[in-house]
Amino acid sequence: MKINHLSSFDFGASDMDSGIFFETAASRLSAGGRAVAYFALPDGASSRLVMCVAFDREGRLEVYSTLVRRPFRSLTPSFPQLHLFEREIYEQSGLKPEGHPWLKPIRFNTPGSVPGVADYFKVHGVQVHEVAVGPVHAGVIEPGHFRFQCHGEHVFHLEIMLGYQHRGVEKRFIGGPDGRSIHYAETLAGDTSIGHGWAYCGAIEALAGVNPPARAQVLRGLMLELERMANHTGDLGALAGDVAFLPTASFCGRLRGDLLNMSALVCGNRFGRNMLKPGGVNFDLDQELVKELKLRLENTLRDAENAVALLWETGSVIERFEGTGVLVKEAAEGLGIVGPAARASGVGLDTRRNFSCGPYEDFTMSVSGSGDVYSRAYVRWLEIQKSAELVRGWLDALPEGRIEAECGELKPDSAAVSLVEGWRGQICHFAVTGRDGKLRHYKVVDPSFHNWQALAMALRNGEISDFPVCNKSFNLSYCGRDL
Amino acid sequence: MEIVKPISQYLAVMILSPLLPGVINRVKAFFAGRQGPPLLQLYYDLYKLFNKTPVYSRTTTWVFRAGPVAGVAALVTALAVLPFAGRPSFLAFDGDFIFIIYLLGLARFATVLAALDTGSAFEGMGSSREMQFAVFSEPAFFLGLAALARITGHTSLPGMFAALTGDTWRAAAPVLALLTVSFFIVLLAENSRVPADDPNTHLELTMIHEAMALDHSGPDLGYILYGASLKLWLFGSLIGSMLLPHSGSWACDCGLFVLLMLCVAVGVGLVESVMARLRLINVPYMLITAFAFSALALIFQMGRPVKG
């Protein structure tokens, strides 16, 4: 069933016979569709499988669902992009996808399971060895377990086992929305507060049939782009730090702070918490603030240009970035990779363009690359510049009007899909209401959910000492994936 | 009274060497627009570490405990041979440059054995890299010293550097310049500095030297850090002695020499501030360059008539 992004639809109408469901899914995916969500929700005594497929080039979304009671047919062997979705379905609902190559646990949230305790790949042979890293790391980062199957410095495969950060946050949305829901959304991934917050607001507004005023939309865009700039700048600095290139590392660290402070100037929080609410935003800009933001943006961008230019001008840095951690386009497409990582591999997917809404109506930007660390770094720099251009334009011509609209009761028995291009990539929130107009199911797909597999692929046949710089070029979220 | 000067020189080395990493860090901080840690940070760290109780894993044996002590002992001995400001030390003898190379090898061997004793994958990786790079840096260093012996006609280090005066530079500048560059490259690699290694990283997978010290704690870690600063002084003082103009006065030479050592540290800091680290598989190429420089120096020197 074709649906529209950010508008509610009758959930019952997506139902189809289970045979037709799998046939349709297979044919749509082989026609170039990309699964943005695939999950099971309880329906009476059995479960309902729901799949949302996006055709990015046409900006088209389709949703199908079917009732299943028994093990169902796994589509992973034909469509690798579903491998994690099916493992998630198996783990959450107990429904077994028949024919899935390896139903490894992904969050260890079933009774009796212990995070990290599972079967792993094994290598055999003379002088091959495994290096295990984590879940406790040397830096102050989130927990995750990485296993490298190596021969000397050469990596055959990297196996990534996560799940340590599972909080059960999706379940907390059920029965809502209530006063806490927006705050749960803002902390789905701490550095993507605006991205996830907006996706949540979009879903709720669609279900309530509310259109936020233009001024609120632009303010949201402003905050989202500030978030993107801050994170991209920080990551470029961290990339420089990982190859021991000090100047860019130090300056970008400070500039990230400057950009976060701009967010704090608008809403009082460096990560943009409490800025958004269903129906609009909580904070407005006055003339004074607009002027101050413009000034800070110009200063920060000028410094960033100087600091980042050093990266591209220094031979020893380029030598480290080029050809390292290549993710080929076929792999990126096959695994459904999103965000700057996908664009750096030549996949033309940007939610702001493909599923544009609100302030992004005329958004155009196309970038491409060869899929190595250099491309991922350079794409981020291009995106910083584009974001600055957008923010400048919005600050110059801020629409007048109110900053919020009344957001009332949600439509019963409906569903809505909300897509936002967070700085890591496409965020998908899928909300379903019950007969009482309360949330019956809430599904979050963070870009990291897709992209961790890309990191594993990028490391293949690479060097183990290149892992840190490769990892930073993706900079994925642990808690966003573990939820 | 003749013994007073060598002893005081030796004590100066023991006391001053932890200053060098402090200088490097301040230079790096300056280029990064930061204030940086205090110049004397390593002294504070050493004081702190020597007051701590070490923690030992149950899987380790006496080899693990002996490693840091053996390592620092080898370096303390090596520095007793090394000349200071072109003045002889109290342990000099003919052919002592070979003795120094073996002492460095012994220190490396002790560190690597201690690292392997932990059974950790990181330490094993670090040891493997350390040994791999040593295969390239030792010949470069050895050939360099051999060329120096050939130029000066002496086979003891104090003899070589005492004979190295302005006149020698005038006569054999290209050879000596090649050697200085070669020694500097070896210094960077042997002391785990950028571009061979990154002393600041917390990422175990990219470490070389640091990876071998991950499991050491307390005084043992103190020995390792102190040993590292002695090693930096050792390689630095070879460069310092090469470039030192001899004025004739002991006090003046000593002052100049210490100043030159600080300049070497500033040089290391500069290199670390302006370039990224090499890809790990390319580090041997850098060391092969050093080897080529040393070999060229030796070949050039063979072509010149021997002095005297």
Secondary structure layout:
The complex is a heterodimer of chains A (483) and B (308).
Chain A: E1 2-3, E2 9-10, H1 18-30, E3 34-43, E4 46-55, E5 60-68, E6 72-73, H2 83-93, E7 97-98, E8 128-133, E9 145-151, E10 154-161, H3 169-173, H4 181-186, H5 193-208, H6 214-242, H7 246-267, E11 276-277, E12 280-281, H8 287-313, H9 315-321, H10 329-334, H11 339-344, H12 351-354, H13 373-396, E13 414-421, E14 426-433, E15 439-445, H14 447-459, H15 467-474, H16 478-482
Parallel strand pairs in A: 6-7
Antiparallel strand pairs in A: 1-5, 2-13, 3-4, 4-5, 8-9, 9-10, 11-12, 13-14, 14-15
Helix pairs in contact in A: 5-6, 6-7, 6-13, 6-15, 7-8, 8-13, 14-15
Chain B: H1 4-16, H2 19-31, H3 41-50, H4 62-81, H5 96-117, H6 121-152, H7 157-163, H8 166-190, H9 218-243, H10 250-274, H11 283-303
Question: What are the low-pLDDT stretches of chain B, counting only 5+ consecutive residues below 50?
Answer: none
CATH homologous superfamily placement of the largest domain in chain A: Cytochrome-c3 Hydrogenase, chain B
> Describe the biggest sheet of chain B?
none
Task: Estimate the mean pLDDT confidence of chain B.
Answer: 90
Distance between the termini of chain A: 28 Å
Give a count of the beta strands of chain B, DSSP E runs of length 2 or more. Answer: 0
Order of helices and strands of chain B: HHHHHHHHHHH
| Sheet with the most strands: spatial strand order of chain A | 1-5-4-3
Structural class of chain A: alpha+beta
Low-confidence stretches of chain A: none
Could you tell me the radius of gyration of chain B in angstroms? 19 Å
Question: What's the number of helices of chain A?
Answer: 16
Top-tier CATH class of the largest domain in chain A: Mainly Alpha
